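JOB MANIFEST
job_type = single_chain_structure
chain_count = 1
residues = 699
[input]
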Amino acid sequence: MKNFFNKHKKLIICVLAALLTAVLAVILAVVFADRIKDVDFTESGYLSHISGSSTVEDVFSSAEEIPVVSEPEEATPSLVITSPAKTDTTVKESLSVFTGTSDPTKPLLLNGEEVTRLETGEFSFDVELNPGNNKFVFEHDGQTYTYNIRYTFTVIKAYAPYEKQSYEAGSTFVAVVFARVDSSSVTAKFNGQTITLTPDPYNEGDQFTNFTGSFTLPTGNDKNLNLGGVKFTGTCQGLTSSFTSPAITCLRDKSLDKPQIVEIVASQAETFNGDTTDDWSRPTNSYLPAGTLDYKVGGIIYDAESGNSYYNLRCGKRVYITKKNAPDPDRVTVSKSYQGELPEYNDISLANHTKDGKHTYLTFDTAWRAPFAVTLAPQNYANPAYQDYSISSATFTYIDIKFFYTKELGGKFVFENHPLFSSAEILSSNDGYILRLHLNKTGEFFGWNATYNAEGQLVFQFLNPPKIKAQNDLTGIKIVIDAGHGGRDPGATGAYGGKHESERNLSLAYKLKAELENYGATVIMSRTGDTTMSADARCEFLRKQAPDYCISIHHDGNNSASAHGGSIYSSTPFSNDAMNFVYNRTAAGNFYRKIKKGWHYFYLARVTSCPVVLTENGFMTNIEDCKNIANEAINVQKAKALTAGVLDYFNRYIAPPEPVPSEPEDDTTSGPNAPIPPVDPSEPPESPELPTPSEPTVE
């Protein structure tokens, strides 16, 4: 036994120790359970039980002081770069933009060189890239930030059609290559034919533009034809790139069946030259109202790059089938086609001629809703071949309405003491008749609109000259202010202040509204909050309001941070003077280092119902411009300058004075209707009453 104990002594001791531990644990558990069976386990009850206190504060006040350990705050970086969004990127253009904020009290270096910043620390600047990897190292506040931008020299950036397509027989499709502007050659080969593509107009500084051309599919095929793909080739600086699109299928020729009629189903359809395939909006083309009918000629014109498609009409014009309606994602239908036959000729006669205080109406009875075209003439344009329809002055003296397929145009057109027209004449042409309406004064035309009424009559509505009682008195004048963008269409993002263009547009629009109302104008806003409004909705709003004048407020944006300045535009020849007056007053304000004016195809400005002026009030993407855009004091002065331009335009139409009384009244006034000296639209005046904005850095 002794030997057994000696042999297993350690094991026996361990077992006894374990048994003793277990017994003690049971005893302690019983005692503890008896102590806590009546404890209230609510927060206050439990604390009171273990400390004799009734609150959390009492517990800790009676306890030994416990040091509070706080979580370390994460340091906010003093340098924040918002563009580029990534530290490692690959691009296809040689220009990149760095935008961000920094601590203005500490130096900011880029690759060892000091970065030019605003006094508040913001910066935005362009960098030129070399082919391959470009490394940019920022140093600021003891930290280093490295960006790698790889620039791939690319000749062709994109092309269309880029998917398999099926087109109607006889149709034309547009071949598009987005290639370098300095390309020595850009071609497209399809179905055995090779064409050289033509570059579209591009802005200074652009590195890429669209090169376009077109191919027409065969006709007379009674079955579908697979014609293969389009091979695109571009050459620039000795480098050549080629791409081939998927196959194009020519569908069976529908012209083997009955004729096709095209009907306009949108409220209005813009027209394009029928002998072109471009999407250029020209002031020499008018629109057609809903209900207009004509024969379809040939196949459909397709533009795979934009997604637009067109019908060619027998009258020589082209209209959309569907089109974009930004910012809405869905396309809208403009016209439809179906089989049928139309009368060979149209008979038109004047049903009535009326006018009210604002408009003149010519209402016509028609045999059918045939197309027409409206033209202001004679008028020369700067360079139509490059889509530049700027004019030096309005020289038109009449308006022509050409009625296609018309065999007879009847009615008595008498304009005695008429505010707009002096006379009318009827001219014959090889494909219809022309109604020529002579104006009272050269260049004095104010807008038109055309619709088919419930009785099927064609109604032309012409805006009469404005009636102004006294200088700077806009009483009775209706003006629409269009604040661009809004809602899910925010526009350009500001390089300074963080706000979007839509917000800046609305803010300036409200300031302009207040100024115009000070002079008695009735002002209607296209939007009054951050709401989305499609392009078509804006145009319909303007036509429905039928104002005397429309001014659209925008701010510019660009891929380059160096682009800067203001600009004033118009689209129709009769808006040219309105544009000039606004330009002169804005230029005199010295708000921008440079300002320009000219023609623009801006969508709303193409509406013909009244003069429309587009204003671009500085670049959101330029740090210095954007700083001034965020300055409300400067914006007030911009609104005053815009208002002065509007007043200059309307002051030309002051009604003849009443007979002078024996004791003439002193018409000198103070306040908002105090006279503003008139300005000739051809020369920008000096305007010392407008303050100069903060001095920007010269490039």
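[summary]
Residues 478-651 form a domain with the Aminopeptidase fold (CATH 3.40.630.40).
The longest strand covers residues 293-303.
exit_status = 0
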